[in-house]
Write a structure and sequence with these properties.
It is a single chain. 35% of the residues lie in helices and 19% in strands. With 348 residues, it is an alpha/beta fold. It has a single domain, classed as Alpha-Beta Barrel (TIM Barrel). The chain has a seven-stranded parallel sheet. Strands 2-3-5 form a three-stranded mixed sheet. Strand 2 and strand 3 form a beta hairpin. The radius of gyration is 19 Å and the shape is globular.
Amino acid sequence: MSAKVGDPVLFPTSIAGSLPKPAWLAAPNRLWAPWRLEGDELIEAKDDATLLAIKVQEDAGIDIVTDGEQARQHFVHGFREALEGIDFDRRVEMGIRNNRYKAMCPTVIGPLRLHSRVHAREARLARAHTTRQLKFTLPGPMTIVDTIADAHYGDRVKMAMAFAALLNDEARGLAADGVDVIQFDEPAFNVYMDEAADWGIAALHRAIDGLSTTSAVHICYGYGIPANIAWKATLGTEGRQYEKFFPALAQSRIDQVSLECVNSHVPMRVLELLDGKDVLIGVIDVATDTVEMPEEIATVIAQVTHHVPKERIIACTNCGMAPMRREIAEKKLAALARGAALARVKFG
């Protein structure tokens, strides 16, 4: 049985955030997919896709649902396109994630400002159409800074704090909209470990100032796209980079930490460094179309119980599912729910 708001469930299930968009909304199976519609028709189509994403998660048996990021073209761009102070025509080629790949990025040319809410429409729509716990995702300050050029602040930390202040405004609004969990996506934490401990966590603290709802940070190897898959293959058989900043993260005010687990080479014992946090463990690999078996998922959950208290484990996807084929994503959602249910029976 899936959880309604406030209901305790052992090994509840959730997704990192995004789901594939319907082909009638955007070009399928790709990131930065162009919209198929415009104007009022696009607004209506985004609403329809948001409701469909919720229905798909509920039908699969997911406990903590999201809007599927259906109203956003990209998880970072969806927020920053609403800001004043960014010139989207002034693009600079930048190395993203410590030069893992290059992208043409817009430029901050003046003080960053947010004149109105960014995601109120889809958050309120989602809240009105589900009784389950609702999570909403925002890009983290460090990750935004890693994907934008600076011609104004002259300092990465100063610019990150400016973004964090605006994220805080939006997060407070989302809490008022009835969102239960607000998650900040920080794949940059997987690359800039020293900076994450030095100022990345402080920027997150600024983003959650005064926030009474549950806060989370998602850290990952990124979407299942070729550049990320190739980079991941260079990391060796054991990914211990998290040891550099997980102790600092454990001391932070962030409530939950989401990270990839299955097929990630992250040693389970590293999770012990997150003592006191709820841990969203990725048991669904978004870099393959192979649909996990419930027994495989339950086994991963069982392994994690040796390092994280059972009541603090949330079964999740490794990352967002936006570039995946819809039918594969839906099968993986169903597998996630079945695997967690099996874990409850066998290890609860």
